[in-house]
Specification:
Elements: H1 10-22, E1 26-30, H2 36-42, E2 51-56, H3 60-65, H4 71-77, H5 82-96, E3 100-106, E4 121-126, E5 131-135, H6 145-167, H7 173-178
Parallel strand pairs: 1-2, 1-3
Antiparallel strand pairs: 3-4, 4-5
Helix pairs in contact: 1-6
Pfam families: CinA (PF02464)
Protein name: Damage-inducible protein CinA
Domain CinA C-terminal: 11-163
Amino acid sequence: MSGTAADDGATAAEVVRVASRARVTVAVAESLTGGAVTDALVAVPGASACLRGGVVAYATDVKREVLGVDADLLRRRGAVHPDVAVAMAAGVRALLGADYGVATTGVAGPDPQDGQPPGIVHVAVCGPHRTVVEPGGSPDGTVGRQAVRAAARDAALALLLEELRVAAPVRTDQDDADRDDGAPVPL
């Protein structure tokens, strides 16, 4: 994945550009990143064209009560699991009425959580056609809390950009003009 702290917001800017051109919307659910993914997107001029909003679901009960993550899944797997990342992405997508939901969950450290060591991160993107989940943290949890969080933010943005490039059709004004009713072309 291409997103790194050194890219100075380039990945977030590209997400906004691609999503805006494709006329699709994005919603963000964050745990360990605590709003950093949403912040990176909001920092880009024009983000309002595609960003619906974000939910910081730091506590497990917020994942369940706000994002609709299944209580049994949380009980069986814990809050740091690929299936939880997928459920968070799907939940925020539905909650905020977005075309794409992106989510982060993991262990920033310094202590383990739910039997998972620091540095373990899962990022997921749920779109209209498919859902993907990948590891997205620092393989070395000893790098420190902020480095793990930054790596998770960058991985989420990179995965979202990858999915937008693969799956989001670029809509044009001509596409809209070709429709009898003038409504935007559906995904």
